[in-house]
């Protein structure tokens, strides 16, 4: 079946450094890739997303890149801050086709002050 | 608050009991999703509705699980004869489908179930 692999499972960085999380997906029909941030005791919150017709997207300190040929996509957080500490999930779906979204297993990010 | 809401936030029950969770989506969102999340894992899809129609169910959704969305607004997820393996966070998400637009799912805070 479809799956999404996410690495690393845990990432610890110093405040101000960059953090990179990588994902690969198996369903070649996937065309929509959201990233979610989940804090303790809360549901996942969308932080950025990218569609398959775009290779890169940036929103302030957060950027996503997509390599559709290799079925890889990545999240980049620059100038990390302690409040960035959370679990981050990548996901892949067929977008507006009404199909389910497949999530990665998550990356626990620690930003040390 | 106009986000997705879920009730209760926490539920402790004994094995064999039935439980029911409620999800209120963002108003005007026509799609509603249920996910299950266990510790250290990402959300796993259970089922989804478009308006009141249940369009897809995961193999994870055994016969003991049933979901409804009778009027196309709020939804309930019932688990009958709960088992310890049902202990998890149950997440609800909603989205709106607009022609040619990406479908972003917005999640509620979840209901954490503990089966003793």
Give the ordered list of helices and strands of chain A.
Answer: EEEEEEEEEEE
The SS-based structural class of chain A is mainly beta
Got a strand count of chain B? 11
- Quote the average pLDDT of chain B: 92
Q: Could you spell the SSE succession of chain B in H and E letters?
A: EEEEEEEEEEE
Tertiary shape of chain A: globular
> The biggest beta sheet of chain A, please?
6 strands, mixed
Q: How confident is the prediction overall: mean pLDDT of chain A?
A: 92
Percentage of residues assigned to helices of chain A: under 10%
Greatest interface: A-B, 27 and 29 residues
Tell me which oligomeric state these chains represent.
Answer: heterodimer
What gap, in angstroms, lies between the N and C termini of chain A?
41 Å
The N- and C-terminal alpha carbons of chain B lie at a distance of 33 Å
Would you count the extended β strands of chain A for me? 11
What would you say this structure looks like, in words?
The complex is a heterodimer of chains A (113) and B (116). By secondary structure, chain A is mostly beta strands. Helices cover 0% and strands 54% of the residues of chain A. Chain A has strands spanning 4-7, 10-14, 19-25, 32-38, 45-51, 56-59, 62-67, 72-77, 86-92, 102-103, 107-112. In chain A, strands 2, 4, 5, 9, 10 and 11 form a six-stranded mixed sheet that branches. In chain A, strands 1-3-8-7-6 form a five-stranded antiparallel sheet, with no helix packed on it. In chain A, a hairpin with a 2-residue loop joins strand 6 and strand 7. Chain A is globular. The relative contact order of chain A is 0.34. The mean pLDDT of chain A is 92. Chain B has strands spanning 5-7, 10-13, 19-24, 31-37, 44-50, 53-57, 65-68, 75-79, 88-95, 106-107, 111-115. Chain B is 0% helix and 48% strand. Chain B is built from no helices and eleven strands. Chain B is an all-beta fold and 116 residues long. In chain B, the strands form two sheets. In chain B, strands 2, 4, 5, 6, 9, 10 and 11 form a seven-stranded mixed sheet that branches. In chain B, strand 5 (44-50) and strand 6 form a beta hairpin. Classes of the chains: A mainly beta (113), B mainly beta (116). Chain A binds chain B through residues 4, 6, 32, 34, 36, 41-46, 49, 51, 89, 91, 93, 95-96, 98-106, and chain B through 4, 6, 31, 33, 40-45, 48, 50, 55-56, 58, 91, 93, 97, 100-110.
